[in-house]
Amino acid sequence: MCRNDVQVTERESCYRGFYRLDRVHLRHRQFAGGMGPQLSRELFVRHDAVCVLPYDPQRDTVVLIEQFRIGALDKSENPWLLELVAGLIDKDEQPEEVARREAVEEAGLELGALWPVTAYYPSPGGSDERVHLFVGRCDSSSAAGIHGLAEEGEDIRVHVWPLEDALQAVKDGLIDNAASIIALQWLALNRAEVRGLWG
């Protein structure tokens, strides 16, 4: 099936701010054949995002950031999450440009080579956001401190961890957000190749 198998009959704007919320009325072709019933779905319309895991192949360390996240407030004892460097594509920029800009803003890091990992939908049941995921080569020897843009209310602490410790934090549930889990597991599977090319 493809996009032509969906009939959008109406699209309402429910909210427009930095993000948007639309209500979409549609029908789509069913696997058994023929068109299904009329459906109404809310769609959270977001800018696409870029996430990058800074990796130091010489020291086998990763740079993670820690910041408050409203989405974790009601469901976590600690709403300060360990995450990747990340940002939205909200200007006329390529994903690689966003990765490099955000690494400087959020972690004080200049990235070398960028390794594209994947692009994926984190929550396609209700959002159109697509995440572009990278591993970025860095020198973690001086990575430290608190960063972020004051005008955006950012308060971001930098952590440098041995890759094995970060992978254990995934296993223990300490790192519990999708982009970080995907990037760290990808790096665990591809570490030898990455270090071979970047080492």
Task: Please explain how this structure is put together.
The structure is a single chain. With 199 residues, this protein is α+β, with helices and mostly antiparallel strands. Helices cover 22% and strands 37% of the residues. The protein has three helices and eleven strands; from the N terminus they run βββββββαββββαα. The strands form two sheets. Strands 4, 5, 6, 7, 8, 9, 10 and 11 form an eight-stranded mixed β-sheet that branches. A three-stranded antiparallel β-sheet has the order 1-2-3, with no helix packed on it. The N and C termini lie far apart (44 Å). The mean pLDDT is 96.
List the helices and strands and how they pair.
Elements: E1 6-16, E2 20-28, E3 39-45, E4 49-56, E5 61-68, E6 80-83, E7 85-88, H1 95-107, E8 114-120, E9 131-137, E10 146-147, E11 156-162, H2 163-171, H3 178-198
Parallel strand pairs: 4-9
Antiparallel strand pairs: 1-2, 2-3, 4-5, 4-7, 5-6, 5-11, 8-9, 10-11
Question: What would the principal axes of the Cα set say about the shape?
Answer: globular
Tell me roughly what share of residues is in helical segments. 10-25%
Q: What do the pLDDT scores average to?
A: 96
Identify the quaternary structure here: single chain
Write down the Rg: 19 Å
Key words describing this protein structure:
eight-stranded mixed sheet, 3 helices, 37% strand, globular
Short note summarizing the structure:
Helices cover 22% and strands 37% of the residues. The protein is α+β, with helices and mostly antiparallel strands and 199 residues long. The longest helix is centred in the last third of the chain and has 21 residues, at 178-198.
